[in-house]
UniProtKB/TrEMBL annotation:
Main location: membrane
Residue runs in coiled coils: none
GO cellular component terms given for this protein: plasma membrane
Matches recorded under InterPro entries: HyfE-like (IPR038730)
Higher taxonomy: Bacteria, Pseudomonadati, Pseudomonadota, Betaproteobacteria, Burkholderiales
Chain ranges passing through the membrane: 6-30, 37-58, 64-84, 105-123, 129-150, 162-180, 186-210
Species annotation: Pollutimonas bauzanensis
Keyword Transmembrane helix: yes
Keyword ATP-binding: no
Full protein name: Hydrogenase-4 component E
Superkingdom of source: Bacteria
Keyword tags: Cell membrane, Membrane, Transmembrane, Transmembrane helix
Subcellular location: Cell membrane
Membrane topology per record: Multi-pass membrane protein
């Protein structure tokens, strides 16, 4: 495994990029402004793109250079632009119906990160990877997945929920880059293009909600039943 045999400089770089991605997930969790979500998601995607290129360099996986470019273009530019168009057309700037305050959400996010660290430490010890960057990769991956699920649970706006889904997927993608960088290129490409389909369908759904339910809150879907 690449993560178990990294030089100190590479391990430090990977750790810095992974921690930066996790901090941006907390920025999204603690903010209520939709455009802040988009900026944080775009920055997070760019960090993951840089991480992919760095792993390609240190691990001699040339296909990861293509993945890095596609990640920066699709996740860092096209997806935020598509969602921004939907936000501008709906004229919704922030989360209107808060189920939890920002401070409470951040505390829960911190507890989930602590839980992810404990689980990752035990898992790394069982795989003889303790003391390597694999522990941090597992922690960040699980933390971002749990934060994504938390955003899906506590956010009401449809835009917020799709961004929670994208954060969850970013966590899986980041972890896979560090832990299993030899993943077949075709799988990576399928994941990237699937995200475009998800966001396109989301745009259609939100416009339908606005027209037929008079709201962009995900709970308005109940009015469409029957």
């Amino acid at each position: 495994m690449l993560a178990a045999h990294l030089p100190p400089l590479a391990a430090s770089l990977f750790s810095l990029l992974a921690i930066g991605s996790l901090l941006l997930a907390f920025v999204m969790l603690g903010s209520r402004w939709l455009k802040d979500y988009l900026l944080a998601f775009a920055a997070q995607s760019w960090l993951i793109a840089i991480l992919s290129a760095a792993i390609g360099y240190y691990g001699h996986f040339t296909e990861l250079y293509l993945i890095a470019v596609l990640t920066a273009v699709f996740r860092g530019m096209i997806l935020p632009w598509m969602i921004l168009r939907v936000v501008d057309r709906l004229d919704v700037d922030r989360e209107l119906q808060e189920r939890l305050s920002a401070s409470t959400s951040l505390v829960l996010g911190g507890l989930l990160t602590l839980f992810a660290f404990v689980v990752s430490t035990h898992l790394a010890q069982s795989l003889d990877l303790a003391g390597t960057v694999a522990v941090l990769a597992l922690t960040v991956m699980l933390s971002m997945k749990l934060i994504g699920f938390l955003m899906l649970a506590v956010r009401g706006e449809a835009v917020s929920q799709v961004l929670g889904l994208l954060v969850l997927e970013n966590g899986i993608f980041l972890g896979s880059q560090i832990l299993i960088p030899g993943m077949p290129l075709l799988i990576e490409l399928v994941i990237l293009f699937d995200l475009l389909v998800v966001v396109a369908c989301f745009g259609v759904l939100v416009r339908y909600l606005a027209v037929h339910a008079g709201a962009t809150n995900a709970r308005a879907l109940r009015r469409l039943v029957g």
